[in-house]
Amino acid sequence: MRYARLHHRLLAFFIDVLVLGGLVLLTILSIPPLIGLWPLEVQSGWLLEPYVLFTVSLPSWLYFALCESSPAQATIGKLILGLYVTDDDGARLSFPRAMARTLFKFLPWELFHLSLLIPHPVFAPGADQFRLGFVFVYAMLVLYVGFCWWSPERQSVHDLMTDSCVLRRPTRAEVEEEERRELAALVEEFQGKP
Q: At 137, phi and psi to the nearest 5?
């Protein structure tokens, strides 16, 4: 199996964040005129967190889970880089499994949202700027990247929790080389027979 390298996975994620950023921005900007209130005007994190959950988190979860359980088995970023997600046996993930993988993947992100917003947003006047949750977020990110860096199959925590992995599709040159090797082995076997 051709396991995806960490830098390819990170670049694919960065591309997906750019794609999602545009979509989420449209969502975030379209809702305030309808409800008559801009999110940054809200001083209660308890009121702001559901807004962030439905405009940022939920669309992100659905994007990753739907894409990775689709026949392409990949998000836009992964498609661009020739990566795809499978279970440990090489089969396509079901939607529930892809959603579980996504939820585990975004656990640090969600902890960051909670730390940023609860009980009062850090941007609210007089709010504490340091939140202990931020320390846990960074520790979790180091753990996630560390697992991906050192595991033989290049699996991160969310991959291990859902028995999944990210693979790299072979390049045309790799496919041609493999075909040449197979053909050479067949010719050699054929020539060796009386």
A: -60, -50
